[in-house]
């Protein structure tokens, strides 16, 4: 392969209509992961990371507790903002169909060093998301059967018993998802597709049943009584945590590009459809929960959330059957998020960008899976869950931290992309595997990109703001109030230290260059 000397900005590869499954050679990589995913499997990768049943059930109570019924209106606002980001990502997925999407995109749009930090922040954030998703079991399993409360008697995740039990259930789930992630890429795909299908069916059933058991009209969403203590604007800012936590991970379809047939054509569409479908279903579930709740004032909706609504409004039988479907969604979501984190680790390690890169970049030729990253992600996520034994406040700290990390990593893609557009250096020309024009925003690229970046930065600040009432409601735990900021500083500091040590040793990996790619011919 003819190569060029690496520069600060990586050249774009040439495109050809028949690049298809051999497109990795354009970027200097060999095909090691097994390319076996079709369009629905690609959609499932993004949808299962978002997993509306997991995340809405996990954070509905929080949103309602701080905002009351009016917190619903934060949902369409966040969906609109994330669709702007997803549109930018869809363009990039068509142009760069490579595992480690955020890391690869940011590196090629900016500089190797900046892209390395985007990937580093993203992969640490993904590991935290894995832990946060596993904690969601506590919101559902004890509501199905009290026997799932293995520690103590209080299932509320804000209690000491509930927090400790959530950690225990989460560790057991992580052991299962780690096993699946080392088995076989086809096994993982089948589980993912079946789980997503079950989740979509369950979500539709929940929406229909809640709306047909309504106790009030949609006008209740304009009531601001529950938001009086913090004001309407403050309530919407905090209430947006629920929607912000739900609508992340749509880039997973891009993460799985190296395992997807016709990725230039498939990934952009599945990124957008996964987010749109999840946003619509999630919004309807939130609305249905508000309309069907037996009471908006007895305090249970702000503690037990949607589990309380299902079992109270639909009866124990139907309610618990639907909650069982939520358990499946949580398990599949944890699996999908762990898989995405594994692909990010693999992609960065393949470029020699991480400690123990040679081991992390190794792909089992029989299974087509990078086993070491799965074990690393599983162990680190389980270690994070131990914080729940220390304090119930860790539940929210972990959940919010992971959102901030991903939002910041997203901004580290949309920011350089906007600069490239303004300089006239980004024109997604070329064809996909079928010969059709690559997905492009055309003349809407600059305004959409600018709004996506602005939205992402504002939401990052909103989510990370150290509100004592949110992060340390009981008082006396200043480190939880500042947990997100401190965790981000430690993450960036550790990354900078690692790069400095490698640079001092004269290791080429410290600069973060990917293998050189061919320069596009005129």
Largest sheet: none
Low-confidence stretches: 1-21, 508-513, 515-522
Mean pLDDT rating: 86
- Report strand %: under 5%
Distance between the termini: 18 Å
Order of secondary-structure elements: HHHHHHHHHHHHHHHHHHHHH
**What portion of residues is helical?**
55-70%
Q: Per the principal axes of the C-alpha atoms, what is the gross shape?
A: globular
Cα gyration radius (Å) = 22 Å
Count the E strands: 0
Tally the helices: 21
Classify the secondary structure makeup into a structural class: mainly alpha
Written overview of the protein:
The protein has helices at residues 39-50, 52-67, 74-95, 101-109, 112-135, 141-144, 160-183, 185-212, 231-246, 252-255, 263-292, 306-313, 315-350, 357-360, 371-385, 387-390, 394-422, 445-464, 468-471, 478-481, 483-504. The two termini are 18 Å apart. Helix 2 crosses helix 13 and helix 5 runs antiparallel to helix 17 (394-422). It is globular and about 60 Å long. With 522 residues, the protein is an all-alpha fold.
What key phrases describe this protein's structure?
21 helices; 522 residues; single chain; mainly alpha
How is this fold's topology laid out?
Elements: H1 39-50, H2 52-67, H3 74-95, H4 101-109, H5 112-135, H6 141-144, H7 160-183, H8 185-212, H9 231-246, H10 252-255, H11 263-292, H12 306-313, H13 315-350, H14 357-360, H15 371-385, H16 387-390, H17 394-422, H18 445-464, H19 468-471, H20 478-481, H21 483-504
Helix pairs in contact: 1-8, 1-11, 1-13, 2-9, 2-11, 2-13, 3-9, 3-11, 3-18, 4-5, 4-17, 5-7, 5-13, 5-15, 5-17, 5-21, 7-13, 7-15, 8-11, 8-13, 12-13, 13-15, 17-18, 17-21
């Amino acid at each position: 392969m003819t190569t060029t000397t690496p520069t600060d900005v990586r050249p774009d590869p040439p495109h050809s209509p028949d690049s298809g499954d051999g497109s990795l050679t354009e970027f200097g990589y060999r095909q090691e992961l097994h390319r076996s995913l079709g369009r629905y499997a690609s959609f499932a990768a993004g949808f299962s990371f978002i997993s509306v049943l997991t995340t809405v059930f996990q954070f509905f109570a929080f949103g309602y507790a701080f905002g009351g019924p009016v917190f619903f209106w934060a949902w369409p606002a966040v969906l609109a903002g994330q669709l702007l980001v997803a549109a930018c990502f869809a363009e990039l997925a068509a142009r760069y169909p490579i595992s480690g999407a955020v890391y690869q995109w940011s590196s090629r749009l900016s500089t190797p060093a900046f892209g390395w930090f985007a990937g580093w922040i993203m992969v640490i954030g993904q590991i935290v998301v894995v832990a946060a998703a596993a904690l969601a079991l506590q919101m559902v399993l004890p509501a199905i059967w009290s026997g799932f409360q293995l520690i103590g008697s209080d299932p509320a995740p804000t209690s000491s018993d509930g927090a400790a039990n959530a950690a225990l259930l989460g560790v057991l789930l992580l052991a299962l998802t780690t096993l699946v992630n080392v088995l076989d890429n086809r096994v993982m795909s089948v589980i993912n597709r079946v789980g997503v299908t079950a989740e979509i069916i369950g979500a539709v059933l929940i929406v229909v049943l809640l709306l047909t058991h309504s106790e009030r009209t949609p006008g209740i969403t304009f009531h601001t009584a529950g938001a009086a203590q913090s004001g309407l604007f403050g309530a919407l800012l905090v209430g947006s945590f629920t929607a912000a936590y739900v609508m992340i991970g749509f880039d997973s379809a891009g993460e799985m590009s190296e395992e997807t047939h016709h990725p230039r054509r498939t990934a952009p569409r599945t990124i957008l459809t996964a987010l749109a479908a999840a946003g619509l279903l999630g919004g309807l579930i939130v609305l249905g929960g508000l309309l069907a709740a037996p009471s908006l004032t007895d305090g249970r909706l702000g503690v037990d959330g949607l589990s309380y609504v299902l079992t109270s409004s639909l009866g124990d039988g139907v309610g618990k059957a639907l909650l069982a479907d939520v358990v499946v969604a949580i398990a599949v979501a944890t699996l999908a998020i762990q898989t995405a984190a594994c692909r990010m680790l693999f992609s960065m390690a393949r470029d020699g960008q991480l400690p123990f890169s040679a081991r992390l970049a190794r792909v089992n030729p029989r299974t087509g899976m990078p086993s070491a990253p799965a074990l690393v992600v599983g162990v680190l996520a389980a270690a994070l869950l131990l914080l729940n034994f220390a304090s119930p406040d860790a539940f929210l700290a972990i959940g919010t931290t992971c959102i901030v990390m991903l939002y910041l990593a997203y901004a580290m893609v949309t920011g350089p992309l906007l600069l490239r557009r303004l300089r006239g250096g980004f024109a997604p020309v070329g064809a996909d595997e079928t010969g059709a024009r690559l997905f492009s925003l055309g003349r809407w690229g600059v305004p959409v990109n600018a709004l996506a970046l602005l939205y992402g930065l504002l939401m990052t600040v909103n989510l990370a703001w150290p509100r004592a009432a949110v992060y340390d409601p009981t008082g006396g735990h200043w480190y939880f109030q500042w947990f997100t900021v401190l965790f981000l500083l430690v993450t960036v500091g550790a990354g900078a230290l690692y790069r400095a040590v490698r640079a001092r040793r004269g290791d080429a990996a410290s600069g973060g260059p990917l293998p050189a790619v061919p320069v596009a011919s005129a």
